[in-house]
Design goal:
The chain has 561 residues and is an alpha/beta fold. The chain contains 20 helices and 15 strands. The strands form three sheets. A seven-stranded mixed beta sheet has the order 2-1-3-4-5-6-7, sandwiched between helices. A six-stranded parallel beta sheet has the order 8-11-12-13-14-15. It is globular and about 70 Å long.
Length: 561
């Protein structure tokens, strides 16, 4: 157990965010959990622990004159890949005013030795922790206080003269250690009251083998936390917040079902967003061919699945009944069985369509996460578009974005598709958010790929579709109040306030009815901001310039003029 530090007793952690660039979370005030999870146990042990999540700040912070930096004995900066240039800028500002103050980098954007070296080189920071820092960060504090050697801090990269030292990678947390983590104390964050969506972690890691995704490399295999702990956090935060993102890293098995059962029985009345895999909705791994499923035959397939006991209907029921409005995020990378097999999704289009249809029957909102892979053709995009427009309430559309230093990145480099270099083009890493292309395309030009990207976004978030969702929701979308909502009604009636009881019922029903239109409207606003974002226009000019540097290309998609 970490004792109260004598030398380092005041710690500031910063979650870097490039607010100038519009991304899919631009209108959502939802910081990551990392810095809060690291600071909470330190605060509980008597250390002054403060956090700045830049997404919650109204203006860009100048760390040269920031009082919290001046008072801190140690500054940590948490980054995604996109946050590397901004985090490096923050560090340079800190070092310009306080050159002797130790600065350490961490977060999902630092998990390889190459990441750490390049980041320290461009920022002037002292240390970087590769991967999760739940053990490493407290041990670094002990090392700086002289209690242990810096060589003993796992996953640490640090400078010695002009060379870098990479300590041995830390083992990931055990399930017992994961469950022992304290409830994150969001009051650590400055402006924490601006959170619009409260993140609650119930799992970490992933057991998937998708070739385009590196989550397993960063966080390791799946660890599911205690359902009762996750449920308790949701219920506690529900006293002050209405919207939650369950950070469950695609976990959708018995643990999730238990969590949903607990919050249903205890009276949860909030809105829930969570990410799940298509396979999580099936009871077994039977082949779809054995049941003779047909793509597009929604009701027929639904009846067949009931007869064969193939779908786990309890999951659908709990997702519908335990919350006010439930939004399930599903990765829909392709509408082709061959492509899904190639990228390792482990599901078929028939399975995907069946789950999307049944989610619709249960009134559960479907956020379809679509990735434009570099080798997509026009036919691939048209099939995706048809799938999204038929079954998706909203969409998160991204270009393929390899993470620096991973096997997938090296593969794309060998293919000659990766345009930017992490070291030479360090400042370009701010654009690694999926909103602009990073790879050369193989079956259409890069410009045409962007045009298809914008066209699909415009079709999904059209005003016509928003109005249609509003009308349909107002007249045909409704639900029976759940236990949590009835408890609110009973409480008002006991206090002799029937007007408040009726108003609360009306509000819950209105939220449910208008949720599809509201989410579409948010997506439309984000897309409008994206179109007006000048840095993206600047980037595309530089991207095309790099593509055209002495390169002759041939495309194999639609005939080109």
């Amino acid at each position: 157990m970490l004792k109260k530090s004598k030398k380092i007793s005041n710690i500031l952690m910063i979650e870097a965010a490039d607010k100038e660039l519009v991304d899919v979370y631009h209108l959502v005030k939802q910081p990551k959990l990392g810095i809060v999870q690291l600071l909470t146990p330190l605060k509980n042990r008597g250390i002054t622990a403060r956090g700045i999540a830049e997404i919650l700040e109204d203006e860009e912070v100048d760390y040269r004159n920031e009082p919290w930096v001046k008072e801190a004995d140690l500054v940590g900066i948490s980054i995604l890949t996109t946050g590397k240039p901004k985090g490096a800028k923050n560090c340079r500002q800190i070092k310009s005013s306080y050159p002797e103050k130790p600065v350490v980098f961490g977060g999902p954007g630092v998990f390889t030795k190459q990441d750490a070296e390049i980041l320290l080189k461009h920022s002037g920071a002292d240390y970087a922790i590769r991967g999760p820092g739940d053990r490493a960060f407290p041990m670094l504090i002990e090392a700086l206080n002289g209690k242990i050697s810096v060589d003993d801090v796992p996953s640490l990269t640090w400078r010695t003269g002009d060379t870098f030292v990479h300590n041995k990678r830390d083992k990931k947390l055990t399930p017992e250690e994961f469950n022992a983590l304290p409830d994150p104390d969001f009051t650590i964050l400055r402006n924490w009251g601006k959170l619009s969506v409260m993140p609650v972690c119930s799992a970490t890691g992933c057991d998937g083998r998708c070739t385009f995704c590196q989550a397993r490399l960063i966080w390791g295999s799946l660890i599911e936390g205690s359902p009762s702990i996750a449920a308790e956090r949701l219920l506690n935060y529900n006293r002050t917040h209405d919207s939650f993102f369950l950070v469950n890293d695609n976990s959708g098995g018995p643990a999730l079902e238990k969590t949903l059962k607990i919050i249903l029985e205890r009276g949860f009345k909030g809105n829930l967003i969570l990410q799940m895999k298509i396979k999580s909705f099936f009871k077994s791994n039977e082949e779809m061919d054995e049941l003779e499923y047909e793509v597009g035959k929604g009701l027929k397939n639904f009846v067949k699945s009931l007869r064969h006991g193939h779908l786990n209907l309890e999951v659908f029921r709990l997702l519908r009944s335990s919350t006010t409005t439930t939004t399930v995020c599903l990765g829909i990378e392709s509408a082709s069985d061959d492509a899904l097999e190639t990228i390792g999704k482990g599901v078929s289009i028939a399975e995907t369509e069946l789950v999307l249809q049944v989610l619709g029957y249960f009134g559960i909102l479907r956020l379809l996460m679509v990735i434009f892979l570099a080798d997509y053709s026009y036919e691939d995009i048209r099939r995706l578009e048809s799938l999204v427009l038929r079954y998706g309430n909203i969409m998160q559309l991204l270009f393929e974005t390899p993470l620096a230093g991973t096997l997938d990145t090296k593969k794309r480099q060998r293919q000659g598709l990766l345009v930017w270099d992490e070291d030479k083009d360090f400042e370009m890493l701010r654009f690694f958010n999926g909103m602009v292309p990073l790879l050369r395309t193989t079956k259409m030009s890069e410009k045409e790929m962007v045009e298809e990207f914008l066209r699909l976004y415009a079709n999904v978030y059209s005003t016509k579709r928003i109005v249609k969702a509003g009308i349909k929701g107002s007249f045909f979308r409704w639900r029976v109040p759940n236990r949590g909502q009835w408890l609110v009604v009973y409480d008002h009636l006991k206090k002799g306030r029937p007007d408040k009881a009726l108003a609360s019922l009306a509000w819950y029903q209105t939220q449910f009815k208008l949720a599809p239109a509201s989410l579409l409207r948010t997506g439309q606003k984000t897309m409008n901001l994206y179109n007006q974002c000048q840095p993206y226009s600047w980037y595309m000019d530089r991207f095309i310039e790099r593509i055209n540097e002495g390169k002759t290309r041939k495309y194999f998609g639609r005939p080109r003029a």
